[in-house]
Amino acid sequence: MKRLFFLLIFILGTQPLCAETNPQAELDLILTGLQERMSLVKTIQTDFVQEKTLSLFNQKVHLKGKIFIQKPGMLAWKVSSPMRYALVINGTDISQWDQDTDQIQSVALARNPSFQVAIQQMQNWFSGSYKSMQGEYYINLISQQPLTLEFIPQEKSAARNFIHKVTVIFQADQEYINEISILEKNGDSTLLKFIDAKLNQEIPAKAWEVKS
Amino acid sequence: MFVQRHKKLVLGLLALLMLVSLFSLKFIKYNNNIEAMLPADSQVQQAMRFLRESNFSDKLVISLKLNEPDRTTEELISATDQLANAIAGSALVNQVIGSISSADFIQEMIFFLQYSPQLTSPESLAKLDSQLTAAGIKERLSFIYRQSLSLGSAFSVPFLQADPLNLSSSILTNIQKLSQASGYNVTLNRGHFISPDGRSAMIIVKTSVLLTEGFGSRKIVNYLQEKLKTLPNYINADIIAGHMHTVKNEDLIKSDIRLTSIIAALGFILLFLFIFRDWRAMIIFLMPLGAVLITTGVTFLVFKSLSYFVIGLSTVIAGITIDYGIYVYLAVRKAGNHPQTIRNIRPPMICGALTTISVFVVFFFSSVKGYHQLAFFSNFTILLCLGFVLFILPHFIYQETKPPKVKLAVKYNFKLPDGLNLILWLSLIIFMLSTTAHLKFNNDITQFDAAGPQVAKSEEEFQHTWGNQELPAIFVVTAPTLEQAYEINAQVYADALLAVGPENFRSFAQIWPGRKQRQANLDAWIKFWTPEKKRKFRDLLAQQGKQFDFSQSAFSPFDRQLDRPLSLDQDPQNLAFFKQLKDQFVLEKKEECQILSFFPDQEKLITQFSKIQLNYPGSFLVSRKNFSRQISEALSGEFFYLVILALLATLGLMAILLKNFRLTVLAVIPVVTSLAFIGGITGLTGLSLNIPSVIAAMVIIGIVSDYGIFMVYYCKYKYQTGTITAVTLAAVTTLIGAGVLLFAQHPVLFSIGLTLVSGVLSGYLSSLLVIPAAYRLWKVKEDVQD
């Protein structure tokens, strides 16, 4: 009986240990799964709403618009409200247009390193290649349902001077991102929500026209 | 008499001396520093010293390239990082620059904007004034509003807050221009140096090894090549550096010296074994070899290092000095080792040796230090060999008693009449001289660079990948202190702007002028931002910012700067981008400071900057084209003077030693013939003259004048000492020594070989065919009496 008692205690005592898996291994598994799923995604088109809290402004700023992504290297960011503004990256060049000036400004991405850093960061978040970002960010698994990942820039990261942390929350089916929250070093923050994301659907050519 | 009595002792001592010299070769330091071969012209030396001491000479660039089309830039960057980390762990490597952080750059630029008041010119302020209107401010705020809502605004907003009026625009443009001043087309991708097509990456390795250090260069190149082996298969890598040239040139010269020495040794051995067929004849071969060995050690002791070019010429010197042994050997074998035999042969031999020595002595008058070593080496070898053959050799050879198996005699039985012989010779000389009319002199020192096709291919590919542009010329400003150098540099920049415009000159003054200029800018800034103007600006910001909902503190970083601009006291500290640019443009040395500016290496611009340079003592230009011109100017004058001196020395010595005008004139025939043929053959083969070929031509004067002297002695005294055979064998041995250089791959040695072969061959033939004919035709009273 005494032996049975100890056996029970042993089994019960070790139960949590058996159930508990290595968090890093679990994270790797999740990131690998995400990477594999996202590698199958060639195009993304989604509506978005963005809420910005910037020290630059008195009030929060709300933006609406569309995002188009086509791998590799194509991205269009089109804001429809509160003003019309478009930014299109066509491989190596970046073009901007706004309704106020009605002028298109184009520049080679390579010639503008600071812009390049910012754009590359955003492309990384949108395209979901998070496993490759492990060298730049400490990645933490915040929750499994919905899948929520937190990214904190490492000391050698290009983003460390500006970004405090980035939180990415996925859709319930983990098909695509539901929202991205960016908290900056100076306290500014951005919340970007994706609405009605369509994956692997052909993107109309018009989407790549900066003035449309 | 001493040698006669103690033959074994003398032989033993000589053998010991040669063994010691042979052993000492292991400890001799060789150098292939081109600097030693350049004239002491102040501008040339200044340019060379600058290149040696500047930060170009301690850098190696590694160019990595993806060789599989489906590999991505990401993979290239990852491999670049791994390689950079692997390279860093060596005492040979001071720094590895594979990437710079773009985010740091943004942060640093925000900090650098604090210097705007010192760096904004009064002209820019005038332009700014026109923007300080409601419409102007609204336009800027509208732009900032859009940018702050754009993608990646986290990176751009801090910058816009610090510079709402876009004062940094010209500063940023200038920084970008300066970073491209080296002439290469580099883009930054994730902070890495990436080619515009995204297929190549660049790593810069700073080393403690200067490219002029042969041994160190080999170590660093080997080290890097080992590390390159760890790269994945889909990446090719090339090392681009002066160090590669040093290593490859050294390899080639070593291999050439090895090859030519073996061929020459074989040639000499075969010559003596099959022509002389006497084991004692080997002594003739061993004497110059021993003399060269001993001289090598002595020259090293005197000069502390040995030039590869001088060592490369040692076979030629051996070929010259072997002649003396041949003259003595043949004379003794034919007439016996009586004192009279030696007495008969001594005058022409000493006369010949002295004329050769006089030519080399002329090199001591050159401003080129490398030629001093050549002169010392040659003359020491000649004197040593002369001593051997006059005082030692006769005691080891005897008169031939049996009839030789092979008759060692050269006869020439041309039936041409003497007059026709001379006419033919004159015609040939005129023809050869006529072909020299279009002879070119090539001073480009790069023609002597024999780094090989692999290095050339790598460099060509590098140029293609990173911008196929010509390397820029450099305007160097020198001053005792950095602050003074900044001031002069700013003045030079102002002059350059007026002379050639802003697009053709990249100066550090564009982002960091002298203190005076910065003080003037700051004064103008303070004067511009009157309290009224500040109030007006703040009011405008508040008014126009309302429609965009900008907060009151939106632009506080700039606002603070309006009231408290930074002091002028020192250069910006802890800014990596500023340090990198400063490293590229400013050379701080113990005794002076130099600031570099870059401009296209074009003749027209060099002329214009040469004029500007005259206004700034201590400043100078460094350009490949200008460098060639400077060397050309320095050398052309010097070589003209040296050639004349060599000719005068030879002629003077001949006249003094021969004591006869007719003999002197006749002895000069081979000299004239050789010089005409060297010029003619060089012209006919489409080659151009260069410094080594001119040196070789001067050596030829010394060599062929010996043939002339021996032949005129023979014509006059008819001593039966085998003169014609001796001159022929002397020419053959010299031709072996010089001819092997035609097998050399290094352009310098080949050039010398071609000159020597054409000069010796023509000089020899003319001494044999023309001198006797001319001697017979030129009748004088004593001949009639004879």
Give the total of beta strands of chain A.
11
Order of helices and strands of chain A: HHEEEEEEHEEEEE
Structural class computed from helices and strand pairing of chain A = alpha+beta
* Silhouette of chain B: elongated
Largest sheet of chain B: 6 strands, antiparallel
The proportion of residues in beta strands of chain B is 5-15%
As laid out across the biggest beta sheet of chain A, the strand order is 6-5-4-3-2-1-11-10-9-8-7
Largest sheet of chain A: 11 strands, antiparallel
Low-confidence stretches of chain B are: none
Question: How would you state the average pLDDT of chain A, rounded?
Answer: 82
Runs of chain A with pLDDT <50, length 5+? 1-20
Instruction: Tell me the radius of gyration of chain A.
Output: 21 Å
Q: Assembly state here?
A: heterodimer
Q: Average pLDDT value of chain B? A: 82
Termini gap of chain A: 81 Å
Q: Number of helical runs of chain A?
A: 3
Description:
The complex is a heterodimer of chains A (212) and B (786). With 212 residues, chain A is an alpha+beta fold. Helix content of chain A is 24%, strand content 41%. Chain A has three helices and eleven strands, in the order ααββββββαβββββ. In chain A, strands 6-5-4-3-2-1-11-10-9-8-7 form an eleven-stranded antiparallel sheet, with helices on one face. In chain A, a hairpin with a 3-residue loop joins strand 3 and strand 4. In chain B, strand 11 (586-588) and strand 12 form a beta hairpin. Chain B has 786 residues and is of the alpha+beta class. In chain B, helix 29 runs parallel beside helix 31 (747-777). The chains are: A alpha+beta (212), B alpha+beta (786).
